[in-house]
Amino acid sequence: MRNGKQYVESLKDNRTIYIGGERVKDVTTHPAFAGIVNTFSKMYDMSADPANGMTYTTEDGTVANKMFMIPRSREDLAARREAMYKWAEATCGFAGRSPDHVASFLAGFASHPEVFGDRAKYVIDFYKYARDNDLFVTYVIIPPQIDRSKAANEQEEKFLPVGVYEEREDGIVVRGSQMLGTSSAVSNYLFCSCITPLRPGDEDYAISFVVPMDAPGLKLYARPSFAADKPSTFDYPLSTQYDESDSLVVFEDVFIPWEHVFVYKDIEATRAQFHGTPAHVLGNNQAQTRLSAKLKFVIGVARKVTEMNGTDKFPQVQERLGELASQAAMVEGMLMASEYQCSIDKNGVARPNARYLYGVVGMQDTIYSSVIRILRELVGGGVLQVPSSYNEMINPETKDDMRKYIRSSTGAKGEEKVKLFKLAWDIIGSEFGGRHQQYEMFYNGAPFVVKGYSFRNYGYGEPVAIVDRFLASYGLPGNETAKTEKEIEVG
């Protein structure tokens, strides 16, 4: 286990990050990243504190963060979820790629090493290294948006997605780019692979590996910061603390030693690492734990806004608050159901029930969009009439007007109302808020992809059997038993 200070120190290396046309000298102090570094630092302090119950004793007798736990029972799943929820609640659910996300994938990989064939040892070794050193690993697993109608090997240039450029005796050299690199600027290692379907001929791109963030030739191009130009946390409470950044990751002939290569030129193994192991289901178990915390936070803001405006007694407002409550309860309930109805697989790993887990994954894009739309309705124009910054609240020339005209029927001070409405705006109207709406829409891929997970994991045998039994229970009028279509045609 490591604390926040140790996490911050681990980021002070020679990593290559560009933002605004300049190379970042120190990611821990740069205005674009300092806020999220501080947030993750506090999270590591939380998990390192024994009072928070976020550690476990590993199979090897070491003490580790529960985010690396391979669950062996329903009780393990519950313990893991409770630990992850503490982190999610600490970030109000707005850190989509906190350290526990990819740690869940690594636990899934290590629990089914046979999927990786003769590279299994390397998977287990790295999992234990990351676990025992409490590393922050994030990932890039989607090729860049260039021409999605073509396979990787059909692109204009050979190495646009990441692929094997050269094989050496001691490892491979990779070239190309990958997205989306969320939190990559402030992580320790990057897991790189391809979760989108590969086709025959794509073998050079059918790889997965891990690489330290300061590896020579590894470059990150961060999107514009939503934190750097903000006047204060009072004015932008989420933007300043939880902007985890996204980056286009470029591999300019990056050397990867064999011990960091998990899959090599194997299309089937590239797919199977996600879905032939519990990796994808454990990763999404963490994701829905985070989403549950996020929805609770957002509907809490909605409730406080209506109370402050005195509209919470209106039936039409209560109806909308009730709709928010239903959405949040559905996510939490499906998460809990997936845990309660878990199964133990052939390797003794407890897997959350895929029917319930992917059922809510398939609705994540519409649920979050609906929640934001309702919050917009409930706050009305109030978020558009807040002072431009905290300065109006303290300037002797303006503060009296602020207190007189921006106040609440509940007796709350003007400062309290402004603070709440600025928070609401950071959820629904700021660049940070807009990014999160887009982020949740495509968290697991395009809508047809995520709903495909639900389609494949629901288990249609049961409902179809119910319909078949019902159809078999009656026949044509005048007949006591049902007839098949063939019997009807003969008749």
Which secondary structure elements does this structure contain, and how are they paired or packed?
Elements: H1 4-10, E1 16-19, E2 22-23, H2 34-48, E3 55-57, E4 63-65, H3 74-90, H4 100-111, H5 120-132, E5 137-140, E6 163-168, E7 171-178, E8 189-192, E9 208-212, E10 218-222, H6 239-242, E11 247-257, E12 261-263, H7 267-275, H8 279-309, H9 315-340, E13 343-344, E14 350-351, H10 354-361, H11 364-379, H12 391-394, H13 399-405, H14 414-428, H15 431-441, H16 447-457, H17 461-471, H18 485-490
Parallel strand pairs: 1-10, 5-8
Antiparallel strand pairs: 1-2, 3-4, 6-7, 7-11, 8-9, 9-12, 10-11, 13-14
Describe this structure in words.
The protein has helices spanning 4-10, 34-48, 74-90, 100-111, 120-132, 239-242, 267-275, 279-309, 315-340, 354-361, 364-379, 391-394, 399-405, 414-428, 431-441, 447-457, 461-471, 485-490; strands at residues 16-19, 22-23, 55-57, 63-65, 137-140, 163-168, 171-178, 189-192, 208-212, 218-222, 247-257, 261-263, 343-344, 350-351. The chain is of the alpha+beta class. Helix content is 45%, strand content 13%. It has 18 helices and 14 strands. Strand 3 and strand 4 (63-65) form a beta hairpin.
